[in-house]
Structures are given as C-alpha cells and as structure tokens.
Amino acid sequence: MQRKSPITWAHVIATVLTLFTVTPFLAVLVLALSPAYEPTIPVAWPSRFTIDNFIATLSAANFVRWTWNSFVYAGVSVIIILLTAAMAGYAFAKKRFPGRDIIFWSFLATLMVPVQATLIPMFLLVTRMDGVDTMWGLIIPTLANSQAVFLMRQFIRDLPNELFDAAAVDGAGEWRTFWTIVLPLTKPILATLGIFVFLWHWNDFLWPLIIAQSDSMRTLTVGLATLNTESVARAQVMASAFVTVVPCLIIFFALQRHLVSSIAATGIKG
Amino acid sequence: MAGLLFVLPMLVLFVVFRFVPTLGAFGLSLTDYKISGEFEFVGVKNYADFFTSTIARNALATTLLYALIYVPLILLIALASALVLHRIVWGSSFFRGTLFLPYVTSFVLAGIIWLWIFDLQGPLNATLGVINLGPVPFLTGAQPMVLTSLAAVSAWRGFGYSMLILLAGLKSIPGELYESARIDGASVGRQFTDITLPLLRPSLFFVLVIETIGAFQVFDTIYVMTGGGPARASYSLVYYLYDSGFKFFNFGYAAAIGVILFVIVFLISMVQRRVLDREEP
C-alpha cells in the first residue's frame, strides 16, 4: 500500500483558487489602511498604516446615512418577506382554498420574468404612488419574492399534518396556530431565507439606483458607486468599500456552513 | 377560506408589483410614454426602432459576445473548483468557504476592487511589467479585451454558487461506479468522460442556464467599471435599457427593450427544457 498524505495536488489547486478569491479582499484592506495620496501597493508597500481613512469614512454624514438606509432596506425587507412568505407558504402547503394551485403557479411563473424587464413599469408605478426617493417606495416593490414563498411552502409541506390537526382540536384559532406552531417549526428555513434576503437587498444595486435618487436616500451600493466616480482618494473609497462588506463578512464567517448547505439542498440563488 | 387570508398579503404584493408590471411592460412598449403620465399609442414602432437602430444592434451583439465569453469562463472555474473540492478530504470545509467568499459581496464592490486590479498602474499590470509585458488596457482596450475583463469580474463574484450546485451534483454520483471503473482499469480521464460528465449533466445544464440568463442581465459591473465604454464597447442590453429610460426618459422604448430581454431569457429557458426533456429516458 502506498502511503497516503492528507495533502494532494487538489490542495495545491485549491490554494491557488483561494488566492484568487481572497487576495482582492486583503488588498482592499491594505489600501484602506494606507495613508491617502502616498505611494502604496502595487508601487510600494505603504510607509505606515493608518486608520484615518476609516475615521474619515465613518464620520462622513452621508456615509453613515447610506449605511442606515441599507440596514433599513435589508432589515425591513427580511422581516416582512419572512412573515408574508411563511403565511403564504403555510396556506399553500396545508390549506385548501379556491384558486390555490393557480395562485401558487402564477407566483412561480414570475421567476421567468427578469426584474430588468419590469423595471420601467415598476418605476412608473412607484412614481404614480409618489414613492420615488422614499424608503417605502424602495422596499415595498421588492417584497414579492417567489423564491421565498416556494421555499416556505416546500418546507412546511413536509411537516406532519397531525401537528396542525392537534392544534385545531385544541381550539387554537388559525392565527394562533400560525404563531405558535408554524413559525417555531420553520425556524431553520426562516434563518436560511433571512440570510439570503438580507444579502440580496444589502447587495442590490439597480433598483436603489433608480428609486433612491437624492444623496440622503442612497443605499451603500449606490453611494459607493458614486464615491467611485467622484474625485475621492482611492484609500478613502477602499475604506468605504471595506466597511460596506463587513456585514457580509460577519454573515459569512458566522453562517458559512449554513449558507453552503442550503444552496446545495435548495438551489436558492442570491 | 382562512388559507386565502394567509396568502392575501403576498398575493396583493405579487399582483401590484409583479403581475401588473409584467403586463404593463408589454403595454408600455406599444406607447410613447411621457414622465408626466401622458402617453400615445404607437403600435410596434418601438420594436421597429430597436431592430433598425445601430446602437440597439450593437448592444445586442455586445451582450451576446459577453455571454459567449462569460458562460464558458464561469462554468470552467466553477467545474474545476467543484472537482477539486470533491477530491479534498482534509480541509474541505475551509476551502469551500474561501472559494465561496466573493459570493456574499455585491457586484458594485467587486467592480471597485477590480477597477484597481485592472488599472494601467494596478497590480496586474505591475506584475506583467516584471516580465516586460504590458501595460495591458484591460478596461480601455478593444471590445473582446474589455468584455473578457468584465466577465472575469462577474465570474470572480459569482462562481461560488455554480460551484456548490456542481459539487452537490458530484456528491450524488455513487462512489461504487468509480470503484468498478478502477477495477476495470479505466484511467482517471476515462472515468471523467464516461462517469462524471454524463451523470453531472443535469447540474451542468442547470448552472449553464442560470449563468446564461445572468449574462444577459449584466449591468452593475459595467456601470461601476466602464460606464458602457470605451466607445460603447461594453454597452450591454440592460445598460441600454437603463440609459433609454433614465437618461433619455424614453420609457416606451425602454420597456420594449425589457420585453426583448424577457423574450431572450424565456427562449433560453425553453431550449434548456427541451434538451433536458429529450435526455430523460
């Protein structure tokens, strides 16, 4: 028998691929820590490291405002989508009502329509509702999420019927059954979905770009893109970029296994 | 009837913000719509304009070329990564994580990072300079060069998803197949072409379609990195839609571009369905 080393050629390739994916993030960090307007990578290693760029970024009023907007846009969307998708998923999975299948399949059919294809009518609709440049105009049109409804329905369908029947026998109302049985039992899928919805909205660009038009309404992605075109020092842009990615990195390091296994299991697409 | 009440909030959202805009896109595309809300029915004029406009045809061709570069590139990286991860026992979850990392970031962030990497004075050209090459105008050169650079950025940000789908596909292939192939003396190459590829086909088709559709929707990286340039070298279909709507306020025409995009994406899905249906015995 030949001796088997735990390190194989596959590790060498994986290391090269890791350099490809991780190095850009490290470069952003080095650039962000470099003194502005001084030589830095790739010309020279910075003469010293400074957190001035981060201080400047975090004390800029508009940047703080954009961060807040992104948190509200992502956070409120997560809460409303989880609640409404769980309700819809529960009804599609366990209830009988007229038109159930037609409604469900028409939800799914919207997956075929790219968001860009409906961008103009969506914008004109929100314009008519006076929602342009408002937070609700930004959030509400993005809540109709068929992937969320589909996942909730699949998950709840696999829960045993007896649980719901027992609650009905105990005389629990529909709404109470939902809060005390459906929501607690669907925690794992709610967590997964919550992470994805947060990332989708945090990283969303085209919709905020057209709806959040004034500086104070911008989200981080849009703000970052405008910083990039203005004559802001690169070190400053990179510090802002790094701050932007911090929530994503926290989610990544805390919940990486969760993310990875749920993509493999459900094919959910960010 | 309680069921309907539970569906109601989502149903209202879908009707107002998905169904109405989808029908609205078709309707709008047949009008000349002013921001004031006035509109005039113009029939298929917007479509006629699109197919006779040089800019539109250029945008269509640019998007197609981008897709032709992006799709093989990302599939290659994703497949190679999946195969490598599938082989690794020791440290597999570490590498799965590091390779997946860019997927949690935005295309805007990816664009900002790679704008620096591709810069004429950036690290990539500095490296090439060491071996007396370049500087290479990654984002300012000819169209194939610019589109390849943009495709590389999107692939960097996005390959983690397809990698995981393919990895799940690989894991579902029974190990005994490889064992008996080894006993029969089949080489690693033969095992790959005779076992891995045929059994991975459904996963490969799935990511092929997902990534092709994604290629036709490319916008964020172009907005951040090239603004559609140089000289419209990276002026994609969605960029054209955005410009028509929000720079020139030509809403009817922009809606028509959206409908054309929808038809393209729809046809891609249909072709995939046909191919997959034919393959299932």
UniProtKB/TrEMBL annotation, chain A:
InterPro entries: MetI-like, MetI-like_sf. The keyword Cell membrane applies. One of its GO terms (biological process) is transmembrane transport. GO terms for cellular component: plasma membrane. It holds the Pfam family BPD_transp_1. Residues 67-255 form the ABC transmembrane type-1 domain. PANTHER family: ABC TRANSPORTER PERMEASE PROTEIN MG189-RELATED (PTHR43744:SF12), ABC TRANSPORTER PERMEASE PROTEIN MG189-RELATED-RELATED (PTHR43744). This is Carbohydrate ABC transporter permease.
